[in-house]
Amino acid sequence: MTRYKRHFLVAVTAAISTFxxxxxxxxxxxxxxxxxxxxxxxxxxHSYWNNCANTDVTIDVGxxxxxDTGMCMTPGINEIFAIDQIVFATxxxxxx
Length: 96
Description:
Blueprint: H1 3-24, H2 29-35, E1 39-43, E2 46-51, E3 57-63, E4 69-73, E5 76-82, E6 86-94
Antiparallel strand pairs: 1-2, 2-5, 3-4, 3-6
């Protein structure tokens, strides 16, 4: 193999590797949403509501220090609060 061909192949391989690394490094938000459970879940010290519906929903959130609160959740992943402040979170109804 000539020197020119070898350098060309190394450059092409590096370019392809860089492209694959950049295009697959971070998942899309849709992919992230699909891998998390619908409804209430906890991760990294925080509580979240993954609204898998295509419309807003209202949830009832029970806090340790304040009265229960109705919260509007848009479609997708919504952060509620720190885990140590939440007692429960339940679905109430569609719409806000």
